[in-house]
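User: Structure tokens for both sequences below?

Assistant:
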Amino acid sequence: MNWSGKHVSVVGLGKSNLALIRYLVREGAIVTARDRKTQEELGPVYDQLSALGVDFRLGRDYLKGLRFADGVFLTPGMPKDLPEILDARRAGVPISTETNLFFERCAAPIIGVTGSSGKTTTTTLIGAILEATGHKVYVGGNIGRPLIELVDTIEKNAVVVLELSSFQLELVEASPQVAVVTNISPNHLDIHRTMEAYVSAKERIYQFQRPQEAVILNRDDPATRAMAAKAPSRVFWFSRRGEVDNGAFICDGRVILSRRGEDRSLIDVCAVADIRLRGEHNLENVLAACAVGYLLGATAGTMREVVTSFTGVAHRLELVREAGGVRYYNDSIATSPARAIAGLRSFDEPVLLIAGGYDKQLPLDEFAEVVVEKAKAVFLIGQTARKIQEAILKARGERDRPRIVLCESLDEAVREAHRAASPGDVVLLSPACASYDMFQNFEQRGERFRKLVHMLTEEEVPKISRVDV
């Protein structure tokens, strides 16, 4: 659809929708920017959009009158069942997203990556493998620069690799030519409300595929394994626990690619020991990326070079510093219990864990059990501190570890963990929660952790009060 001359409401003024507004204005749309924030709260964003001639509806009534628009674009993560949105839908107003518009207009083939964890690492690895193969590659979606502003310049012989969250997939009406689902575990239930709705959103990544297209699934995850029966396209697998006919797996400590044809062919990529990323979850990400690379013609040598030199993405088990025999890791991306569990299981060393934050209404029982197994001390912050404390105490039973310390802020938690750490220990920020109660996003939280670590390892800080349990 051409939006020139149409009245378009863009709801939510985050990074992706700001890019969308700029794109729609260039196309000639008459845009109304809507957000719960006031003009003062928007600050420079308001000035930037005003300069484009955009109208505004801000504050408490920002959704009023949506039914009179020619089209509505919603920000990712916004509940789709709000009365004003339902009213607009009943009035026949198209409800869409920046992601859906990108799918509609992108001339190049798209590789889409979703899952509860591992999306960014897998997406980044796929982009690196394809770029090393000689492709012109655009990486975006839930990471990096929104690609909607570039969509009209992306040539059909390029390749686009998109990280896609459940929120971005919820309203899409097309699927990428190659879809990857890394794993499924409870997440974002504060917005999706049920696990069924969350999984349904993820399934849209392959739901609209054609028979000749491909979906790559985690064979070791029951939820993703079950998706194969619903896929309308070719199914490929990755597994670290057993052989697969079509895809990537681990055998005798090596990454192996397999393709079932007239004769089954096996290709050796590299030794697991040569992969520099920590944790079994990252091994799965490597396998998924190699399965995509194999499908798109990358050689084993190219994949070997990329995966054995890749050291990770910021805020994902990122080694910030080693000082005094203690290593400090930033895993701020761990915004769910499942991600934090993967982080904890990446270490054999004694762990001093910093956790807590915004409550996404996710179960904590398994996380608490792994904390008791792996951590010698836990420093809890944010909205969920008491809730996590109760779960750990229940899992701990009569044991006296891990020690639990309630802290008022991330700053206090890092100082206390730094003071308690001994040579050979790991101080790990892996919150198991979102950051919205204390920070704008997980990146800001991770950057604060980095800064604190560097400050504290340069000089000791005075003792502060704490609550031990």
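Moving on to the next sequence.
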Amino acid sequence: MYDLVIVGVGSGGYEGALYAHRRGMKVAMVELSPEMVGGNCLNRGCIPSKYMRHGAYMLDKFEKLKDYGILLKGYNLNMKELKEGRDRVVINIRENFKKFVQHLGIPIFYGKGALKDKNTVLVEPSGEEIKAKYILLATGSSTTCLGNLVPDGRYVYDTDQIWSLEDFPKKVLILGGGAVGVEFAYIFKMYGSEVVLVELKDRLLPSPDIPEESSRYLARKLKKLGVDIRLKTTLQSWEPFEGGIRAILSSGEEIRADLILLGVGRKPNTEGIGLEEVGVEKDQKGFVKVNEFCQTTIPNVYACGDITSPLMLAHKSMYEAKVAISHMLGERDMKRDERMVPKIIYSAYEIASVGLTEDQAEEEGYDIKVGVVSFVPNPKAMDDGENEGFVRIVADEEGRLLGCHILGPHAGELLHQVMHVMKAGLKADFLSKAMYSHPSLSEAIGQASMEIHFGSITWTKRH
């Protein structure tokens, strides 16, 4: 009998296992196979894509080497070397985790885990039954199709299959201008492919959580790099043609490319894991219903990550696992709050957002103050040749921090400074009076906070 059994060893599952073990719980885990430990993020998502994005970023930087007196004579691109380096990182992370949990004495049962009853997980095909006081469901998500676009790994790829490419395509048609679409558009373009990026809405990154200004900056940069962006456009039809595809867009234009990449979302893995038999309720879209402590409608069964909401981010899953386990241990101080989940996009810029945008804050009735500072005059950004973008902090009349939106170098790292201050309930004056090293990118956070606390003196006006 275990204290906790976790179904799924992705980001939430392994973070939850380590956290529960640290807190003194006896833990077991269930995962489909040894190759799937680490889940989608490690094996087919954020880790391999960020590896390739870093390569694209270095190619971007290569163009600026002459400004630093480094005069090189070009470069060659090799997909085989890229794949080997990428896969080496993935395998190292996966194998190190398996060794670590083995060292800690946390068993992983391989097979499909499903609820037999509220205290038992059945592992198929072995038939093993694992009993526990608590169960944490962390089964993740899967790619989805779009109409008659069924991924076949030849003409139409999804984000599970794209890793099998043996060479850089000459031309790729990407459907979806969200986080996945803009990331792969940057990667493929910098590695020498022609890219057509199609988005149904009127802007890239069409989420209400991402400011329109961030979308505009990114679109401008991608266009400058040569990405062909088509907004308010859909794919009307397509067919295989001369070793690639011929597509007709809703505009009537014909596009010929080597392949189509779908970047159009994912669905929760909540089918066939015994939820209905035990009484765990789902919503109409198939997500598990959970409360603020990640507790399902069966009190000792919890859920985390991609199966709890459409906000499918590895760090959300990791945090929710800790929320669930803390609640199992009788604590009530950690709660799930999707507004406080950072959203980081890695494309031609890093784009980071947490909390409310200006539009969202105004819709909720706040009288807002906004502090905006550009990276253009930032000395550290200038030294690094990356002085593009901004820090944008949204606060209420009293200076309470409502949101932060950063576009530019290392935005995903910088965001945490503001995010944790927000969570602690501190105001803009706290950030405005803090010390920042010089030269640093972080100085922009202090300056944006002073814009709120002391009033605006910069030339950057609100759009």
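User: Anything stand out in the second?

Assistant: The radius of gyration is 23 Å.
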